[in-house]
Amino acid sequence: MESNDTTKKLILFSFLFLFLGLLLFGAVALGIDIKPKEKETKIVNEEVKYDETKDTIRNSTSGLRDDDNNALTNKKSVIIYYSLSGTTEKVAKYIQDKTGFEIVKLETHKTYPKDDAELMQEEIDNEKANFIYPKLKNDLHLTEYDIIYLGFPIWYNEMARPIYTFFQDNDLSGTTIVPFVCSDNYGTGQVVSMLQKAAPYSLVYRNPLAITNYNRDNYKEAVDSWVKEVEKGLAEGEKFD
Predict the structure, then answer these.
(1) What is the pTM of this model?
(2) Which of 154, 155, 158 is closest to 197 using CA atoms?
(3) CA distance to 15, 18, 226, 241, per residue, from 21 (Å)
């Protein structure tokens, strides 16, 4: 009886192995992958897109408020000057003769001792030491102007004190400043850098006109050539800082 049971078990196992073998053979024949499935790893490609709106492109050489590609058409100019001895005033009025621009003279409430060099030096030193800026009589409205021809004398290697007041009183953001200066022997010196510091949101023409002892008698000739140079520079958007 025991022998018959053993025989039956062997037959059963034989059929079972045969069945599994046939199943495996069929799977291989049909191309079924029966390997354990590996965990799928998803690779995400994060693309960073360039956003042009984050960049502000500025033309740092034009100096003109944005329209018609730096051309002088529709650009409004004005000549503003301060003069103590009268030399800067003569130059400013001749520039007006050559250009036809409007002209404004800056005037102070105080009177400087222009005929006494020693007292003048003391007055300027006192203003600088105590951060005093002379009040101007002018109440200017300059928002309509794009280009400002700014004239002033050089006092002891610096801009005349009323010019500092002018910058304090007026917002010149976005304008172009074209300077002309008068002095004994200073020339243009550090005029451009002084103006850049006083008006950081304006562009400054970097070739100021300088009237000194060397060309004071021939200032008209100097103005003639300089005005032509400035007009060309403005039209081409060059020589500005």
Answers:
(1) 0.69
(2) 158
(3) 10, 5, 104, 89
